[in-house]
Write a structure and sequence with these properties.
The protein is mainly alpha-helical. Helices cover about 80% and strands about 0% of the residues.
Length: about 130
C-alpha cells in the first residue's frame, strides 16, 4: 500500500491535487489560528475547552499536513486522511459539543460535505493512476 501511495504522489494530476489540498489545509490552519487570536466570533478563552483543544490540535495537524502535501510526501497524505477522518468522527458523533444551534450544525454539515468531495476526488485520482 505504501509503495502504491508513493507511486501515486509522482503522478502529474495527483501532484497538482496534493498542492490544492495543501492550500485547503493552509486555510484551515489560518482559521484555527484566527480562533485562537479571538477572531472567531467570541474570545477564545470563553469557548468550551474541547473547542480550544481542537483548535490547538488541528492547527498543528494542518500545518504539518500543508508541509507534507506540498512536498508530495506519503506522510502528508496520511495526515490529510487522519485530519479529515477525525473531523468526521468529531462532527458527527459529538456534534452537540461543537454546535449549539441549527445554523452552526448546517455550517458543520457543509464542512463535512466539502471534505467528502475532497476525499472522493483524491480516491478517484489515486485509483485511476493515469
Amino acid at each position: 500500500m505504501f509503495n502504491y501511495l508513493l507511486e501515486a504522489t509522482e503522478l502529474y494530476w495527483m501532484g497538482i491535487y496534493l498542492r490544492v489540498l495543501a492550500c485547503v489545509f493552509a486555510y484551515g490552519a489560518i482559521v484555527h489560528a484566527g480562533n485562537m487570536a479571538g477572531l472567531g466570533g467570541k474570545p477564545w478563552l470563553e469557548t468550551p475547552s474541547l473547542w480550544r483543544i481542537a483548535d490547538i490540535v488541528y492547527l498543528i495537524l494542518d500545518i504539518a499536513a500543508v508541509i507534507g502535501l506540498w512536498q508530495r510526501k506519503v506522510w502528508g497524505i496520511g495526515l490529510f486522511l487522519l485530519a479529515f477522518s477525525s473531523q468526521f468522527v468529531l462532527y458527527t458523533i459529538f456534534i452537540d459539543y461543537f454546535a449549539s444551534n441549527s445554523q452552526e450544525k448546517q455550517t458543520i454539515y457543509g464542512l463535512l460535505g466539502t471534505e467528502a468531495i475532497l476525499i472522493l476526488i483524491f480516491l478517484i485520482l489515486f485509483l485511476t493512476k493515469k
